[in-house]
Design brief:
mainly beta; Immunoglobulin-like; 7-stranded antiparallel sheet
Length: 86
C-alpha cells in the first residue's frame, strides 16, 4: 500500500495506520522505508521516501531510532502532509 495524497490533517485522536507508518494517540510514530531526513527541528521533520516526502509538524520532535529505513519519531505529531518528489 502507498501513502495517499491526503493522509491526515488535524489533531490525532486515535492511532493512524498505513503500510508505511503507524502514529499512536500519544503522538509518536513509526515509519518504514525512510531513505533520509530533510528538515529536522523540534517542530518540523521531513522524511524522504523513494518517490515522495512527508512533512511532519508537531512538538518536541526528535528521532528515537533510525536503522535500515525504520524510523521511530518521538514527541507529539500534530499533522503531516505528503509532498511529491524529494
Amino acid at each position: 500500500m502507498r501513502f495517499d495524497k491526503e493522509i491526515f490533517s488535524g489533531e490525532l485522536g486515535e492511532a493512524f495506520y498505513s503500510s508505511r507508518c503507524l502514529v499512536f494517540p500519544n503522538g509518536e510514530g513509526y515509519f518504514e522505508g525512510v531513505k533520509g531526513l530533510g528538515d529536522l527541528s523540534e517542530t518540523e521533520v521531513v522524511l524522504r521516501f523513494s518517490k515522495l516526502s512527508v512533512r511532519i509538524v508537531g512538538e518536541k520532535l526528535r528521532v528515537g531510532k533510525f536503522l535500515d529505513g525504520d524510523l521511530h519519531l518521538c514527541g507529539r505529531i500534530r499533522s503531516f502532509q505528503v509532498e511529491d518528489g524529494k
